[in-house]
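If you are new to this repository, start here. Below is one unmodified record pulled from the training split, so you can see the exact layout before writing a loader.
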Amino acid sequence: MQDIIPRLEMKIAVSGKGGVGKTMLASLLATILTQLGYSVLAIDADPNATLATALGFPHPERIAPISEMGDLIEERTGVRPGQAAPYFKLNPKVDDIPEKYWVEHNGVKLMVMGRLKKGGSGCYCPENALLEALIAHILLRRDEVVIIDMEAGVEHLGRATARAVDKMIIVVEPSKASIETAYRIRELAKDIGLENTAVVANKIRSEQDKNLLTSAMPDFEFLGFIPYDQSIIEAGLGNFPLINSSPEVISRVQDIAARLSIVKPGIIGKAIG
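And here is the target side for that same chain:
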């Protein structure tokens, strides 16, 4: 019989160089914790949004990003995206948006944020105001597990909300570019007051790969090492949920969840084993 799991509030941001496996980690953590009975809200904040596919959502292409919901943005900020306007609401009402606009599959709730507008784009960016207010509300006000799949940076986080993140996980693979990106992400995180960062190593083929990363990143906390597994690649290519792909990878992510102090290893075994 599965142990009774208490309601838990924890905010996790997952970042890393493109292609290292951060969406894989975010999707597996979200699925595993949902299976354990936690309330999990997964946030896709990567412009190359693939978290819905990794989670096995049917027809992920039909999930509209919040940044593209013109009617909603106009209703909440007073300005429609793309329109030049000197004023719009910088603190729009957002507390009712998650329940209205998340989608749910196999117990995992998902919201796709979409791309933040960059400076110089010729837009006053009411969509940015909405997205930033929404992320702040989710991190500061919601009492559940929140897992944010981010691009290689901290664009969706601000100084006022960064400290609400309990752990920034940077996913790396055995490559110089990935290591350099990890250091850059950590510095960006520190700049906004996010100090609690750690690393998950992915695509590990040998002890040499593991040693390469630990020796190149001696000042990082390593939460775990995930082996390279072709079945993960094949699941992604076939749009299959990653939770059904590799038992070894799933086991390593379960260990990572335990190291985050979300659950005890024994509880994971009872619930999923």
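Two things worth knowing about this chain: The chain has one domain: 10-272. Residues 126-141 form the longest helix (16 residues).
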